[in-house]
Design a protein that fits this description.
51% of the residues lie in helices and 6% in strands. It has helices at residues 21-24, 30-39, 57-69, 79-85, 114-121, 143-154, 174-177, 190-199, 204-213, 218-226, 232-244, 248-270, 272-277, 292-332, 346-349, 356-374, 381-394, and strands spanning 46-50, 92-95, 131-135, 160-166, 181-184. The protein has a 5-stranded parallel beta sheet, with helices on both faces. α14 (292-332) packs antiparallel against α16 (356-374).
């Protein structure tokens, strides 16, 4: 079956004992994992994994690739599985956007472009066995890049499986999508995420808070639930909003403080690469032959993460701030505590100061600032933040009460 027909139907059933352990670990997507468990034995040459962020499609991709590359069909314990689950297997090639789009590239030596990716599809894999070719955010393929991809999918190399991931399958060119089997990953329900976290030893209150702060993303909810460090985004953002409430001077200082916190986050992130690379280096600190491509990709990924780190910190902080103002709208409109995202701060949200209309305006201003920061042509994040906090400082308040400091 090809095209955009969904191959994961309610009628699909696979005995649990027939599901490879590595695929069984993908929680909450029984129909998708049942299909993938069967596909491992005789895979189609190309798949589209579609679903919203946090639905588990990338985790499923890693598990499927591990099962394809493992001699035992996905045991989840061997070297091959561990490398694939970390996206570090030598026989795995990953293409992801380095900017707004995936470009066609000048040639096969132009890294992280469609031509670079296509050229590697026909190379002999570093280790015996299959090769997996993965495209992240495939909806960001430019038309000319999609044409290059199409040629590879029309004449796929032997023992090579392509997996395209997307949250927007309708934006993948139909010529490419029609060559793939589509596997859908619907959003995980709040109750499922909460129960999964409870099964890992968390209290229901902690699990529910983490789920709501993470927007239902199970992976992020796990991090939030297990480490208070993940709440840094919210703490920094609320402290900045509190400072902005003191007036224009405070607003400018708030922008400066939030920018400084983002730079500190980037500096911390920069220290991670050495530890991540160490398992793939020889005693002289050079990449082992089989892992040269892996190490090169890890270095490129880390460089991209560093370039994006400050914007990602700011976006996460502003997202937390928008959620806080949203909760102020809920409480100001007579909503109950069960409707809140910040379930651990009901007393703060009930404090006087913000009217529901003013909180709604504040939430809109925060979302506008997020959009400004997401625009990669906007190079001055500090100015965008100053504009935001100046707007917040000018909003009418019922009383001269500031946002509770964090």
């Amino acid at each position: 079956m090809t095209g955009d027909a969904d191959v994961t139907k309610p009628a699909d059933r696979t005995d649990a004992s027939d599901v490879p352990p590595v695929i069984r670990d993908v929680a909450g997507q029984d129909q998708a994992t049942a299909f993938l468990a069967r596909a491992v034995h005789q895979p189609h040459h190309a798949y589209v994994f579609s679903g919203p962020e946090g639905s588990g499609k990338r985790l499923a991709m890693r598990a499927f690739v591990a099962a394809l590359l493992c001699d035992r069909g996905g045991c989840g314990e061997c070297r091959s599985c561990r490398l694939a689950l970390g996206e570090r297997h030598p026989n795995l090639v990953v293409l992801e956007p380095t900017g707004p789009d995936i470009l066609v590239g000048k040639g096969s030596s132009d890294p992280n472009t469609a031509r670079w990716f296509a050229s590697r599809a026909y190379l002999t894999p570093p280790e015996p066995g299959r090769k997996a070719m993965v495209v992240l955010q495939a909806d960001r393929l430019r038309i000319e890049a999609a044409d290059v991809m199409l040629k590879v999918l029309e004449e796929p190399p032997t023992d090579t499986v392509f997996v395209l991931l997307t949250a927007r399958p309708d934006e993948i060119p139909e010529t490419v999508r029609s060559r793939c089997q589509e596997v859908s990953f619907p959003p995980l329900s709040e109750e499922f995420v909460v129960e999964a976290l409870q099964g890992e030893g968390l209290t229901r209150d902690r699990a529910l808070l983490a789920c709501r702060l993470a927007g239902g993303n199970l992976g992020r909810a796990r991090r939030l639930a297990k480490s208070d460090q993940e709440l840094t985004f919210r703490a920094v953002a609320l402290a900045a909003a509190d400072l902005a409430s003191t007036g224009p001077a405070g607003a400018l200082t708030a922008a400066m403080d939030l920018t400084a916190a983002a730079k500190e986050f980037r500096a911390t992130l920069a220290k991670e690469l050495a530890a991540e690379l160490e398992p793939f280096l020889d005693q002289r600190g050079r990449p082992e032959d089989a892992f040269r491509g892996v190490v090169r990709r890890m270095e490129e990924q880390h460089e991209r993460r560093l370039r994006r780190a400050e914007r990602e910190f700011l976006d996460a902080s502003l997202l937390a701030l928008a959620a806080y103002f949203r909760d102020l709208v809920v409480t100001g409109s007579g909503g109950t505590e069960e409707l809140l995202i910040n379930l651990d701060r009901p007393s703060d949200l009930a404090a006087p100061g913000w009217t529901a209309p003013a909180a709604g305006l504040a939430m809109g201003a925060v979302e506008e600032a997020r959009a400004d920061l997401a625009d990669e042509t906007n190079l001055n994040a500090r100015l965008a933040l100053e504009r935001l906090f100046l707007r917040l400082s000018a909003l009418p308040r019922r009383e001269a009460t500031s946002t509770p400091a964090r």
